[in-house]
């Protein structure tokens, strides 16, 4: 497929695809200079803009300048109510300052779906960054960095090079103020806010934007969530940065998504240190914290796995020296001990040496080393929690997330709460009007919540009692079947004891209950 590369404002590259690509075959592209001259001649004949179509592997509008911050998709099913909602919603989005562009259904894969592309210009980003109190840099930090770690060069094979990480200097940050833009380090307004922040701002607008006209106000007709639930839109999502499996054409520098896939999200890179700063920059702080926790948890599990492997190896090495199993299997010891029936009916007396094989098998996992492993895991859990608190505090400081959760709770009130809560009162601390629920409304909600919690607690207790009763009943049933000499399952009975059969089936029931 032949592509035409054009250069837009500043350093943005646009890839344009000719409408008559089909006339060039792979053979003509392999003909060297002659092919290049023929393509150049054909380009001169096709200079009309209507013969050029934007490349689909892009995150920009058709002009190649405005970035796509969010996408809404819908299927035009001729429903007048849905069409009216979309018109009102999109009109209100434009009143908020967002810029919209629609892709026709003919360009979609199923030829049924329309895509509404949304771009937030600088004035909208500045307005809502001020409202959401998003922290941005205003001065480079002059604090000295920590001392170099001894033998740090040993960790080089496990770290990504600086050409991939692109380390950034530390900055002092402050909540954004649109009236003091000159105080912040803004070199380029189009890239000042990272994509994750732009997506967050646009989604905040989508979640609070109504879809009713000014003449008739229905407070519940607000937000993209309701439009998704009633089928007005089929999906709402931000875009990734192009292809991840291979480098995009004319991509300089490489996209962050491509770098994350190539150097992090691959099995062959399992030994590499996670590029948490890249993850945070591309996905945001919440996803970055999640992968930081997951990586730390995996690192700590490595030590637990080593100790567990040592304990299991001890069980294997001491397999032949298991005194308890030897006594159980001994005809003079275990064979002379007569055990009581496992159930009240149809269960005969049985000898202890009939469990010889299962006792040998259980020694692999239940031996003296198991006691040490249990003690170690108790200590390991405590160390894991304390070390994670330390790692989390360091990330909060490095990523400027101190008191982040409290600030978000104060600044971002759920749209559903604002809709249902019509009362307002003055906050004595912030000196701003905020929604609140009356005491009668809160009591009713507390009562309903308490009744719901009690119901589910009772249901869980009933399930636990039911599983216990099941274990008792099924244990007796398995014992009567497996130990019955008239049954033809004596061979299976050598490997499956009533205890094992009951535990396996009860575990399956517990799994089903948990999943439900």
Explained architecture:
Its main location: membrane. This is Anoctamin. It comes from Nothobranchius furzeri (Turquoise killifish). With 516 residues, this protein is α+β, with helices and mostly antiparallel strands. Among the domains are: 52 residues, no CATH class; 218 residues, no CATH class. Helix content is 48%, strand content 11%. The protein has 19 helices and 13 strands. The strands form five sheets. A four-stranded antiparallel sheet has the order 5-6-4-9. It has a three-stranded antiparallel sheet with strand order 1-2-3, with no helix packed on it. It has a two-stranded antiparallel ribbon with strand order 7-8. Helix 10 packs across helix 11. The longest helix is centred in the C-terminal third of the chain and has 44 residues. It is extended, with a radius of gyration of 33 Å. It starts with a strand and ends with a helix.
Biggest sheet character: 4 strands, antiparallel
Radius of gyration: 33 Å
Span of the ends, CA to CA:
50 Å
Total number of strands: 13
Low-confidence stretches: 1-54, 485-493
Give the DSSP E fraction (strand runs of 2 or more residues).
Answer: 5-15%
- Helix tally? 19
Approximately how much helix is present in the residues? 40-55%
Structural class, from helix and strand content? alpha+beta
Within the largest sheet, what's the order of strands?
A: 5-6-4-9
- Give the overall form: extended
Protein name: Anoctamin
GO molecular function: chloride channel activity; protein dimerization activity
Domain Anoctamin transmembrane: 279-516
Transmembrane segments: 290-317, 369-388, 453-476, 496-515
């Amino acid at each position: 497929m032949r592509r035409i590369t054009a250069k837009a404002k500043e350093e943005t590259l646009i890839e344009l695809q000719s409408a008559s690509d089909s006339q060039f075959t792979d053979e003509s592209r392999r003909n060297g200079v002659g092919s290049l001259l023929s393509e150049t001649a054909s380009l001169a004949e096709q200079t009309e803009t209507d013969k050029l179509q934007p490349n689909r592997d892009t995150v920009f509008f058709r002009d190649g300048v405005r970035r796509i911050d969010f996408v809404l998709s819908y299927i035009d099913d001729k429903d007048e109510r849905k069409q009216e909602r979309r018109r009102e919603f999109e009109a209100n989005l434009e009143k908020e300052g967002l810029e919209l562009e629609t892709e026709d259904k003919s360009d979609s894969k199923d030829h049924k779906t329309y895509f509404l592309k949304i771009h937030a210009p600088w004035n909208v980003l500045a307005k809502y960054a001020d409202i959401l109190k998003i922290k941005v840099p205003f001065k480079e930090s002059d604090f000295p960095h920590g001392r170099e770690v001894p033998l740090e060069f040993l960790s080089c094979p496990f770290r990504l090079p600086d050409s991939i990480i692109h380390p950034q200097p530390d900055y002092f940050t402050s909540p954004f103020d649109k009236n003091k833009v000159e105080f912040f380090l803004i070199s380029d307004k189009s890239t000042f806010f990272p994509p994750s922040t732009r997506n967050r701002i646009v989604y905040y607008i989508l979640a609070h934007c109504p879809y009713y006209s000014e003449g008739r106000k229905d407070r519940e007709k607000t937000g993209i969530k309701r439009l998704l639930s009633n089928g007005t839109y089929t999906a709402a999502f931000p875009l990734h940065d192009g292809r991840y499996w291979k480098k995009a054409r004319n991509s300089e520098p490489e996209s962050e998504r491509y770098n994350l896939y190539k150097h992090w999200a691959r099995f062959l890179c399992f030994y590499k240190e996670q590029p948490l700063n890249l993850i945070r920059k591309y996905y945001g702080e919440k996803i970055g914290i999640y992968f930081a926790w997951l990586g730390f948890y995996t690192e700590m599990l490595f030590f637990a796995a080593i100790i567990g492997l040592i304990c299991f190896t001890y069980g294997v090495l001491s397999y032949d020296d298991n005194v308890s199993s030897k006594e159980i299997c001994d005809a003079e010891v275990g064979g002379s001990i007569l055990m009581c029936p496992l159930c009240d009916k149809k269960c005969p007396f049985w000898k202890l040496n009939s469990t010889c094989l299962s006792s040998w098998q259980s020694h692999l996992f239940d031996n003296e080393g198991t006691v040490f492993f249990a003690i170690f895991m108790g200590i390991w859990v405590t160390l894991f929690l304390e070390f994670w608190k330390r790692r989390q505090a360091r990330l909060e400081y490095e990523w400027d997330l101190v008191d982040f959760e409290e600030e978000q709770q104060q600044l971002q009130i759920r749209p559903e709460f604002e809709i249902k809560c019509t009362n307002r009162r003055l906050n004595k601390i912030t000196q701003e009007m905020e929604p609140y629920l009356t005491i009668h409304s809160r009591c009713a909600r507390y009562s309903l919540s308490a009744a719901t919690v009690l119901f589910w607690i009772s249901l869980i207790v009933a399930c636990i009692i039911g599983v216990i009763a099941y274990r008792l009943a099924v244990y007796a049933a398995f014992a009567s079947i497996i130990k019955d000499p008239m049954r033809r399952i004596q061979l299976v009975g050598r490997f499956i004891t009533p205890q094992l059969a009951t535990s396996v089936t009860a575990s399956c029931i517990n799994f089903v209950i948990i999943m439900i």
